[in-house]
User: Fold this.
Amino acid sequence: MNRTTCILFILLLIVSISYFMIMMEKRIDLRQISPIHFSKLEKNFLDGCRYVYIDMGTNIGIQIRKLYQPDLYPDAAVVPLFKEMFGNYSDEVCSVGFEANPLHTSYLEEFENFYLKQN
Assistant:
């Protein structure tokens, strides 16, 4: 599994959570919405990941960016921790971010597109 697939999945989760929050605000009965059947997927989206980084409350994705672009954050306290945990294998880390605030959806979609272009 490559980084592009991982980032795509991350943002899919973020958008899904945002959608859920919007539905809750509109008070739509979620039982009326057809469930997604994950059993139809051919393989697990995390297959091939050497490591998995889970960012709960990803906000606008800064912690994920610190993982993949540590040179932009030389003074960040988490960068040495990422280096210790993942070594030089950031290209083999799949990141999964969760963000409940739908106000971040637009930015996170741009964030996704940026990383998809980076591959």
